[in-house]
Write a structure and sequence with these properties.
Elements: E1 20-24, E2 30-31, E3 34-35, H1 39-48, E4 52-57, H2 64-74, E5 83-85, H3 86-97, E6 102-106, H4 109-117, E7 121-122, E8 133-136, H5 144-155, E9 159-162, E10 168-169, E11 176-177, H6 179-190, E12 196-197, H7 203-213, E13 220-224, H8 227-237, E14 240-244, E15 263-265
Parallel strand pairs: 1-4, 1-13, 4-5, 6-7, 6-8, 8-9, 9-12, 13-14, 14-15
Antiparallel strand pairs: 2-3, 10-11
Helix pairs in contact: 3-7, 5-6, 7-8
Length: 282
């Protein structure tokens, strides 16, 4: 019998129920503003089994409450506490590794709002020398003024941290450059590598997630559509992993991937075992 990393990779559903389930969002539960087939019914069935659920995203453009509202509007009831994002991992990292640091934020306004709410002081773009740490995130307003400020702050000794490692984000009307593009420009010009990129697949994101679920990692299944973020993080954190083929990864990527998921699903509707109540395909 072939395995999920072999040339003739079969689809393979889980053969057990887990105490906790973690779902990536875009490409796993929905695409853009459209729920994927069976997503609402599957989440409801998992909750009926008494399992804990968390929703996970690297996208740092919205507060968790906004993602919860979107899920609820699409038919999957959720509250802000159900969502763990790269911004949660960022705040956790800053509190542990940079308490009291003055931050230069190279991001859209939300990141500045969140770090200020967490008690961190920020410095303006025109005074980068006062920064102790530069925070970089996906920024659709990224420009030379921001690059120069970050460059000068890092050259003056500021540390460098980023929210997520994604080079691009799939969008319904065409992909967009993501955080890794902004970070690469700063690293290349300043000649310094970020000390941490806190989103998936980092241990910082995994720790934020496990804090929220409060379950053993080996009783948790992470379901996502990316091998190098979702599946890799699950494996490194000791969780089981399931790759869904409804997002950015297709079966053709598996034979050449060094990261092999435990399960490969046509879609999220296949996450429950066949013998579980509600495990039939919706």
């Amino acid at each position: 019998m072939t395995t999920p990393g072999s040339v003739s990779t079969p689809l393979r559903r889980p053969d057990r129920l887990f105490g906790g389930y973690v779902f990536d969002l875009d490409g796993t539960l929905y695409l853009g503003d459209h729920l994927l087939p069976g997503a609402a019914e599957t989440v409801a069935a998992i909750r009926d089994h008494g399992a804990r659920i968390a929703f996970l995203t690297n996208k740092p453009l919205e507060r968790p409450a906004a993602y919860a509202a979107k899920l609820s509007d699409l038919g999957i009831p959720a509250v802000a506490a159900d969502v763990v994002s790269a911004t949660d991992a960022l705040i956790r990292y800053l509190r542990l590794h940079a308490p009291g640091a003055r931050l230069l934020v190279i991001a859209e306004p939300l990141i500045g709002e969140l770090v200020a709410e967490a008690g961190f002081a920020t410095v303006p773009l025109d005074d980068p020398g006062r920064a102790d740490l530069v925070v970089v995130s996906w920024d659709r307003t990224f420009e030379y003024v921001k690059l120069t400020a970050a460059f000068r702050a890092v050259r003056a000794g500021a540390r460098l941290v980023a929210t997520n490692p994604d080079p691009f984000c799939p969008m319904p009307d065409g992909d967009l450059p993501d955080c890794a593009a902004m970070l690469a420009a700063i690293e290349a010009s300043a000649g310094v590598r970020a000390e941490a990129v806190v989103g998936k697949p980092s241990p910082h994101m995994a720790a934020a997630l496990m804090d929220r679920l409060a379950l053993p990692a080996d009783d948790t299944l992470l379901v996502g559509d990316r091998l190098l973020t979702d599946v890799r993080m699950a494996q490194e954190a000791g969780m089981a992993s399931a790759l869904v083929l409804t997002g950015v990864t297709g079966l053709d990527a598996l034979p050449r991937s060094p990261v092999v998921p435990d399960y490969v699903l046509a879609g999220v509707a296949d996450v429950l075992p066949d013998n579980a109540p509600g495990g039939d395909r919706p």
